[in-house]
């Protein structure tokens, strides 16, 4: 059974106004003093963000429980400092991000200028264990067309600087301003993958291999494929579903590779169009089917993903749970839909943030 770990980036906000607060250093100091040695929370690029990482898990129910537990712990530590946490991929309210004091982050600010100052976005990264770099690259090549579906499921960033963007995932559009972000061409082997990343670093445009911000990549820290396409999910059960689908995608791709099946030869141009469509439409309208690259209703494309990874989900014992979570998601909608529903009811973006604080800890 492949292990799965999740990293989530949360937004720190004022409980009364909903405005982002640059208090991550204080929250981290409190967490370290209160829970010495647990090493769950990490600093991020901006003072308004707090990141946590789960332990590797094989049981998806245990992973889901850990996500909930980490969110509650983040809320507890933030509350002691006078702020709250919200699983929001962008701030609905206007914000001027505060870059954390760190040599690496200062390099980013100097190198990328305004693009760095406008990158206050929160994502979810899923690490799935692989046996080798060769298997990992084979997986990265084969899961490429399915990643936009995970983006549509997770989409949770409709508002930007106080306005409705009319995108479900505006975070992904902001994230793509990094020069190394987005879908990748086929690599074919681990050697070609590592050579491509080395060539990118050699240009001097990116600082190091950590900045290969591909939608899916080999982790430089762990023996995993790291899937980085998702918004941070508003609801913990959606995060668990994304993690289960990510593991099933990795397992399905590895089986295809071992069986000698070639990956779909979609161009990066088409993959970018699929990602844009998912960011714009979410689960409300049409997506591009990963195999045909033609438009179909979002529900049909999500069902196609479930069918594609059905055997892997069944073998890990996750199929029934994934089907039920998908039914619940399609009824309730993704985070973008929930945020817009609150805005329609109240007409106030502060109420949107307050509601999302509650959903984060539910």
Automatic annotation (TrEMBL):
One of its GO terms (molecular function) is glutamate-cysteine ligase activity. Its EC number is 6.3.2.2. One of its GO terms (biological process) is modified amino acid biosynthetic process. Gene3D superfamilies: 3.30.590.20. It is an enzyme of class 6 (ligase). The keyword Ligase applies. Keywords: ATP-binding, Ligase, Nucleotide-binding. The keyword Transmembrane helix does not apply. HAMAP family: Glu_cys_ligase_2. ATP-dependent carboxylate-amine ligase which exhibits weak glutamate--cysteine ligase activity. Belongs to the glutamate--cysteine ligase type 2 family. YbdK subfamily. This is Putative glutamate--cysteine ligase 2. It comes from Streptomyces spiralis.
